[in-house]
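tool=predict chain=A
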Amino acid sequence: MRRVVRGFWGPRQESAEQLAARWSTMLDRFTRLLPETTGTWRTVPVSGTGETLRPDEESLLGAVRAAQAADDWSAADGTSLRLLAEGAAPGWKVEVSGLAGGTPEYLLQSLVATIVPPDGAELPDAGLLAAVAESWQPDYGDVSDRAVTAALKKEAGFRIGTPSVGWLGYLSAGRVARTPADSFPEREELRTGGVLLTLASPGDTVAVVDAYRTLKGSGALDPLPQPMTGPAL
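tool=predict ok
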């Protein structure tokens, strides 16, 4: 089952060195969680050929600086970087893209990992979302797929670009304060101060829609006020 692991946050200015450290931390955890990948990644630039790199800070700093040099808007909007796992086991595809380090008032910063495993493979969804959350300290995040997104749009009025959840959800501390604790007992507090919520089994769109409605009704999924002034609610 194809799934998407995501995190979103508001403006947070960061240096190339800080971004490289975050990328390195997350990719190192992904490699340990997904042994089907080799730990080698290839950049996917907007133009030109990609570069093969290891997920160490020095290599990623070079990739971040190259992305910034190719994009005149990176200082304001954030640095965009897209990576593909090289040499993954047959049937596996892992792509990670991020936009981070900028201070736009209306454009969310983001980290999105798309994982396509072979049929029947089980993925460490909670570990992957925790890796994104603890590496990037987002405002909110989730693990979901196209079926979840379609169900939320059709049945709960979800709009792309607004906070949501999947069968797993991550909420920052400010959003956790608005979450009805009794409704979601399966939770894990992360060192970010946010919480990882287990809301449904993979593929159970009915339970995800119910959880979304409850969280939205409590204010836990309110969009960041615009113009945005900080990374989290």
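The radius of gyration is 17 Å. The chain has a mean pLDDT of 95.
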